[in-house]
Amino acid sequence: MPANKIRKKSSRSRKKGPSKGRPAKQGLYASSSLAADSAGFKRLGALLSCLVPLAVYIFYLCPTIAAGDSGELITSAKVLGVPHPPGYPLFTMIGHVFTWIPLQSVAWRVNLSSALFSSLACLFVYLTIFRLTGRMWAALAAAWGLAFSRYFWHYAEVAEVFPLNSFFVAV
Q1: Residue 57 half-sphere exposure, CB side, CA atoms within 13 Å?
Q2: CA–CA distance, 19 with 126 (Å, rounded to integer)
Q3: Which of 11, 19, 62, 159 has the most CB atoms less than 10 A away?
């Protein structure tokens, strides 16, 4: 066909989205009306998954030295010493930063670091489950199920290295 006989397509023949000129929804909630609100749900769930356990942990936080390695870890965090092998240098340095907080006793401050790292681990569990499923309630159930399980909660209230380890695993 000669070049001068090629018709230009009119704007009427151009196809628009699936319905009345709107583009198709994409993502996890493609068929749901919650697509526009998923970012708000994600933020709300993320806040709840972290702040609710943190508030509970702070309420029940051990005010002094607890049994086990807690006393040794608190002392080494205060003086930047070396607890028993392997020494836990990262926990000791982070715990030392927490000793600068001008609240309560030194033991309470280092115990607070465990509460904070446990609640941050719950936040990352929430974010992972929300990304996998796209459901806020499933992600909250997973995060709070971890947060309020027996041993996880126990180690969130005292100075121990396990909450820091849980945080890194969740990240």
Answers
A1: 35
A2: 35
A3: 159
**35 class by beta-carbon count within 10 Å (0-12 exposed, 13-18 middle, 19+ buried):** middle
Torsion of CA 16, 19, 25, 31, to 10 degrees: -160
Is the omega angle on the peptide bond into residue 86 within 30 degrees of 0, that is, cis?
A: yes
Contact 33, 27 (CB under 8 A): no
Burial pattern 51-78, b for ≥16 Cβ within 10 A else e, equals ebbbebbbeebbeebbeebbbbbbbbbb
Helix, strand counts (H, E) of the chain: 7, 0
User: Locate tokens 């006393």: which residue?
Assistant: 71
The residue assigned the tokens 């380890």 is 165
The per-residue pLDDT for range 27-63, each reduced to its tens digit, is 554 444 444 456 777 788 899 999 999 999 999 999 8
DSSP 19: B
Q: Is 0.90 topped by the overall pTM?
A: no
Q: Indicate if the alpha-carbon torsion angle 134, 52, 111, 145 is positive or negative.
A: negative
Note the residue count of the chain.
171
For 22, the 3-state DSSP assignment is strand
